[in-house]
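Entry for the shared binder. Reason: the reviewer on the internal report wants the predicted structure included alongside the sequence.
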Amino acid sequence: MGVFKKGKNWYIDYYVKGRRKREKIGPNRRQAELVFQKRQVQVAEGKFFDIKRAKKVLFDDFAKMYLDIYSKPNKRSWTRDRTCIDHFKEFFGGRYLHEVLPLDIEQYKKSRIGKVSPRTVNIELSCLRAMFNKAISWSKAVQNPVRDVKMLSEKNRRLRYLQEDEIGRLIANCPDYLRPIVVMALNTGMRKGEVLNLKWEDVDLGTRIIYVVNTKTDEKREIPVNTILYAMLVDLRTKSDAYVFPNDAGEPYVDIRKGFRTATNKSHIKNFRFHDLRHTFASQLVMKGVDLKTIQELLGHKSIEMTMRYAHLSPNHKQAAVERLCQDMDTIWTPELKGRQFKDLLLSLKQLSNKDLEKLGACGSVDRTSASGAESRRFESCQAHQQSLY
């Protein structure tokens, strides 16, 4: 009883209630040892599940089943699942579902780090976890190995957005078909899919309202049309019937990544995606003083916590904010201080007695040009007293 190798693969051999069990694990000895240890624990705790009594399901077969039966009919983001599954099949292809262990998923996670962002790795792990949850509910698996895998930290991830000069360069370098799409995103904060699939029936030029129907949150929202966007939409209205931004065939564009990447390269804008136009919309509104509740409604967020992601300000904007203090404090830094720091003045004033303060106040009220001899001498005495204080 234990772990042994036969041919190119490793097997485990153990007993359950007096009956001998053997399982083929694969070419990895360490993996076989881990499975063997797990089976021993399951037998000891009475939680052993006989894999042979259940129908074995290949990962590739279930991935196709998940995509066709669940993802495509129920998720607008099913293409994202398809991309994730393509990566999974490269790594887990040829294995049965019960052969995918937490260690394997940790190795997959390690292989993706460095190639994609932590956010992307977590999205893929979430997709894999959803797949195994569905496999359990469909009686294709008995446990979810992703449950024991820790997600990557996404702290301090930067939300990229454009400064005003970058916005101008990007619009100028967009090809003719892409420019109105970018202008729409910049002035509404709509997601790429919402923009590309926008129909004229959802645009009311009379009231200047865009009705976003097919949203990520399945909640309809209304976006006002500003003057720039209104002028553009009036011009586009005469060029198409169904979709606001149709291709040559009259259908919505499927992929605009190549044109958008070319435009950003020509504009010397790095590390910028189409979705970052949404960040730009929100960030520019925040910097212009729009409250977060209004921005939340425009973006269609269910909670204000989501909107807080867009409530960041650029370093230049923060610098401009603190520089306004200098404008308000100009009258404090008077020539009479003769270069002394304001904090030194405050410290000196705190040390003055009430009598001293009365004398200083009296000094400020004397007019030298019209003062009598006694008042003039009193003023000079005050000046001498001031000098003694400093």
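Summary line for the report: The two ends are 93 Å apart (CA to CA).
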